[in-house]
Amino acid sequence: MKIVYILIAILAFGVLIADHELGHFLMARLCGVKVNEFSIGMGPALLKKQGKETLYSLRLVPIGGYCAMEGEDEETGDPRAFSVQRRLKKFAILVAGAFNNFLLGFVIILLLVLLVYNSFAVPVIAGFADGFPRNGEAGLMEGDTIYSINGYRLYYSQDISTAVGLDDDGVMDVVVIRDGRKVALPRYRLEAREYDGVTRLGIDLTLVKATLGEKLKYSCYTCYNFVRMIRISLHMLLTGAVGLRDMSGPVGIVSTISQVATESESVGEGLLNVLYLVAFIAVNLSVMNLLPIPALDGGRIFFLVITWVIEKIIRRRCNPRVEGYVHYVGMILLLGLMAVIMISDVVKIFHG
Question: In 10 A of CB 89, how many CB atoms?
Fold first, then answer.
């Protein structure tokens, strides 16, 4: 069964790539830009089909893809080249891939929410487990809405677990809404203990019925929460809290998807878990592609802004080849990083 999940994971990763590049392709066509090749995957071509003006290809290595537009990094004299389009059109084409990924992630989450949820737990305290330490008005009380923990805004029950998990010592700055006003509970101890044989925080939360409106709200929240988790992960990476070994590329992602499915209690649950993880990866790809890094869509958008400012100052067009060289170097470095992460992923698979 594991090999089936691996194949599903590879297929899912390919779908995410295709979805991203399809966004660029459709927007380019809508803006009248010539697309020379639309490719899913990298490396040697497995399948090719020449359209009226675009070559469609499926390539061997499922770690990327591309929508090769005429004149992306240089002027070719073609009036339909990307380089001669207005900045608004360029921006729309560049952001379309990330938009497609985010939209796909949202649609998957909405589908799962519609299928699975009958209620949602919100951070409104309904009661406490026997033995929960109470401190009167200086502590948590029934009816309190837990607004934030250590500055981390709470919306649903899982946010409490996330906020507590990010804390080091169990002593946190908690803010609650009590009788319509915010009340700060500084240095409040909130940690998992054993209550009735179960290790938990000891707080009982309020359930709200999963109406269609609540399901739409929860789906939007989940995608927003994905973005928050990505921001936290990037902060941890930049501050050294996590290192290269903690990063994953395509091999690690496929392995994780397969592992999540394999460890599920049933095939149905496994497929639901895979879909949830694919939605998270889709939103992750959307956000990461918009970072201002050369060779990524965000890097190209960043150059759109920078060249616009420079051209306003010097009153003449910047040479697009300069940007092309920067993205070329960025692509080489990015591929090198991907190779290192891929080797790390393989080592983790075989050595744990």
Answer: 17
Q: Is 39 exposed, middle or buried (0-12, 13-18, 19+ CB in 10 A)?
A: buried
Contact 14, 254 (CB under 8 A): no
Active-site positions read: 21
Residue 50 pairs in a beta bridge with 55
Measured between alpha carbons, how far is 99 from 86 in angstroms, rounded to an integer?
20
Residue whose tokens read 């497929």: 271
17-61 pLDDT, tens digit each: 899 999 999 999 999 999 999 998 888 999 999 999 999 999 887
The tokens for 29 are 């066509």
Tell me the one-letter amino acid at 132: F
For domain 119-209, give the fold: Pdz3 Domain (2.30.42)
Contact between residue 71 and residue 83 where contact means Cβ atoms under 8 Å apart: yes
Residue 199 CA: distances (Å) to CA of 52, 165, 203: 63, 14, 11
Q: Structural domain boundaries of the chain?
A: 2-113+277-351, 119-209
Are 96 and 48 in contact, with CB atoms under 8 Å apart?
no
Task: Determine the Cα–Cα distance for residues 141 and 143; give it in Å rounded to an integer.
Answer: 6
* Bridge partner residues of 209 (DSSP): 119
Read off the pTM: 0.88
* 109 within 8 A of 279, measured Cβ to Cβ: yes
Helix-helix angle 157-166:212-238, to 10 degrees: 10
Q: Can you say whether residue 29 is alpha, beta or left, with left for phi > 0 and alpha for psi between -120 and 50 degrees?
A: alpha
Would you say the C-alpha torsion 343, 274, 14, 104 has a positive or negative sign?
A: negative
- For 129-267, list the strands marked E by DSSP: 145-149, 152-153, 171-178, 181-189, 193-195, 198-200, 203-209
The per-residue pLDDT for range 247-259, each reduced to its tens digit, is 766 666 677 777 7
Q: What is residue 289's three-state secondary structure?
A: helix
**Closest CA relative to residue 37, chosen from 49, 27, 46:** 49
Query: Are the CB atoms for 93 and 82 separated by under 8 Å?
Result: yes
The three state secondary structure string of 131-153 is CCCCCHHHCCCCCCEEEEECCEE
- Beta-strand relationship, 119-128 and 152-153: unpaired
